[in-house]
Please model this.
Amino acid sequence: MTPPVWRTARFDVDLSRPRVMGIVNTTPDSFSDGGLFADPADACAHCERLLRDGADLLDIGGESTRPGAASPTATEELARVLPVVRHAVTLGVPVSVDTSRPEVMRAVLDAGADIVNDVRALQRPGAVDAVAMHPRAGVCLMHMRGEPGSMQQQAHYVDVVAEVAEFLGARARAVVAAGIGRERIVLDPGIGFAKSAEHNLALLARQRELLAAGLPLLVGWSRKSTLGVLTGRDPGQRVAASVAAALLAVERGASVVRVHDVAPTVDALKVWLSVAALDGAGASSAGTIAA
Ligand code: HH2
Model:
């Protein structure tokens, strides 16, 4: 069987083993690391640190999606992410940019970024075209309802897993219809986006149902508030809980985990991989990211 591959602008990411996407927030106000990497030099150094820690991909964001965070203008968002993207694309790994703005998508793809990660699943006018115009850029389509500031008011579902699956399937069909090949797409249930702790946990427990769309899953549990509800800990103290959630997600079929704490996640996945290789439940080979 051909190993699953995520096609991105410069790299075919081999998903026969789980991949770790390191988070680089260039924002002043992200929920767990806001302001730490707002200076481009610090963000660039953080990219290098995450790669030393074993990250397979980098995800650079310039807009916090924390409830209540102020939305930057496109100019502000670009000023935050572009210098970091320009550096990150020299580091030899796929570079993703976490944005919903078509003008930012176009600029970062022109600057050499490989992937657009959109928490609004390319629903803003012009977003699908911005990615479709690029012959190979990868895309992550995430589930959310409404806007970050008010999304928790829309956390009402009869069956959260079925409704998230339906949304993601519909978005995938729409972007494929616009000319973005399936091999360029991964799906994300959007942990913490318009969801209660119970919804997030149901999405993890029943995550395999989301694989029915036949597309790889990317999942972001890192330091999220559900882990605070479960452990009573602040975001910076949620490393162990984040690693546990990432492992559970991989065990249930996630191909990429989006994390702040790369080194402990990579260690945990090494243990998981060595056992999965023996019981045949997971990765069959070590896999590489091919240019
Ligand atoms: N979560 C956040 C941001 N972007 N993208 C994807 N695909 N999946 C996620 O779960 C996801 C995401 C929120 O986390 P973080 O970037 O740490 O915080 P903030 O939005 O406050 O910058």
